[in-house]
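lol forgot to send this yesterday, sorry. struct tokens for the thing we talked abt
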């Protein structure tokens, strides 16, 4: 089983489980996105993805280490200095333990 620490599509859970909203919005803020006053998960989805793509390698690596994450998943079109352990047409996966700090 695998789990995700922060994925914009996880936000749909807040409609079914409102108690998760605070934690979800906190995680999205850590990833560089801030909810507007009238947050709409579906309308704001593209902006969330765009902000995530802009995060530097140092930032995502620090977030991963601080939250004890084993892997970082990023859009493949984003170039990071560490080699990916897996990639497909859309995404690249980086192992935090093997990550290069730059």
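and heres what i got for the seq, position by position
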């Amino acid at each position: 089983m695998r789990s995700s620490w922060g994925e914009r599509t996880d936000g749909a859970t807040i409609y079914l489980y409102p108690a998760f909203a605070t934690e979800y919005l906190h995680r999205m803020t850590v990833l560089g996105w801030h909810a507007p006053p009238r947050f709409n998960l579906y309308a704001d989805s593209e902006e969330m993805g765009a902000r995530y793509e802009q995060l530097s390698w140092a930032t995502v690596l620090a977030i991963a280490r601080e939250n004890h994450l084993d892997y970082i998943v990023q859009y493949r079109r984003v170039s990071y200095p560490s080699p990916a352990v897996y990639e497909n047409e859309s995404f690249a996966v980086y192992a935090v333990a093997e990550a290069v700090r730059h």
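Strands lie at 71-75, 86-87, 91-95. anyway ping me if u want another try
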